[in-house]
Amino acid sequence: MKAIRRIVRDVRPHWVGDGFPVRSLFSYQEGDEFDPFLLLDYAGPHRFAPAEAKRGVGEHPHRGFETVTIVYQGELEHRDSSGSHGTIGPGDVQWMTAASGVVHEEFHSERFARDGGTLEMVQLWVNLPAQEKMSPPRYQGIVDSQIPRVSLPDGAGTARIIAGEFQGVRGPASTFTAINAWDLQLNPNGSVSLHLPEGDTALIVVQSGTLQVNDNPLKAVELALFERSGELVILRAESASRLLVLSGEQLNEPVVGQGPFVMNTREQIREAIADYQAGRMGHL
């Protein structure tokens, strides 16, 4: 059994820009217990009224890690200095590897801003190994239809495999480290046993519903972080539930961050700031 190390709950919301009401469930600034994951923001569900102007976050840089955006409701537009551009809607995933540095913006799409509606999404920051932090940036736009689904045993529900492997089915995301990212939907009274890699960091984010995780109660917008020893996690849904399951190999490398930059040394942070200010990360 993979015992629960701690549960994160009752996180206060805050705004990122004017378009993302988020609860930050963890951050690398708290320590290395989530390695290789750096940050997870859960946004919404939040109802936006129709508007003439697009809400969101304007031009800003990143270096040294990846941002993974999973949209459940609503629609977003992304544009960055590498020339990548994409619109992602319900079920879609944007996997942006900032690596040596990009400048980008994230806004509600023109259609979503005009019509209004409910926004719900997750943004995850994934650290890069030291040898990959200065690699060229890349962008993966993964639409819902590209993400395989697996039926869970005994009618317990379904799993979407975004990254890694589940029951022999591989997800479409290309990752630098061994990572599993699974969207699970459990039916009322559904039960499933998950086998997560021994030694990996593993966590579950409950987005809706109530369930027992290794006989510990969890409800919406709560996170369970597991001990790295053990493999088995048992889920029993008390009501219809949706959750995000993440696991990943530890990098065990120094983490030094400042704002949108996450590197290994303070000198590398100074270089990142200087490169951005000099325009070496590009422009929109």
Protein model, in words:
The chain is 6% helix and 52% strand. With 284 residues, it is mostly beta strands. A seven-stranded antiparallel sheet has the order 1-22-19-24-17-14-13, with no helix packed on it. A hairpin with a 2-residue loop joins β15 and β16 (169-170). It starts with a strand and ends in a 7-residue tail after the last helix.
Provide a quick synopsis of the model.
The protein is mainly β. Helices cover 6% and strands 52% of the residues. It has two helices and 26 strands.
What is the strand and helix layout of this fold?
Layout: E1 4-8, E2 14-16, E3 20-27, E4 37-48, E5 56-62, E6 65-73, E7 76-80, E8 85-88, E9 93-97, E10 102-108, H1 110-115, E11 117-127, E12 138-142, E13 149-151, E14 157-163, E15 165-166, E16 169-170, E17 179-186, E18 191-195, E19 201-208, E20 210-213, E21 216-219, E22 222-226, E23 232-237, E24 241-248, E25 256-258, E26 261-263, H2 266-277
Antiparallel strand pairs: 1-22, 2-3, 3-4, 4-11, 5-10, 6-9, 6-11, 7-8, 7-10, 9-12, 13-14, 14-17, 15-16, 17-24, 18-23, 19-22, 19-24, 20-21, 20-23, 25-26
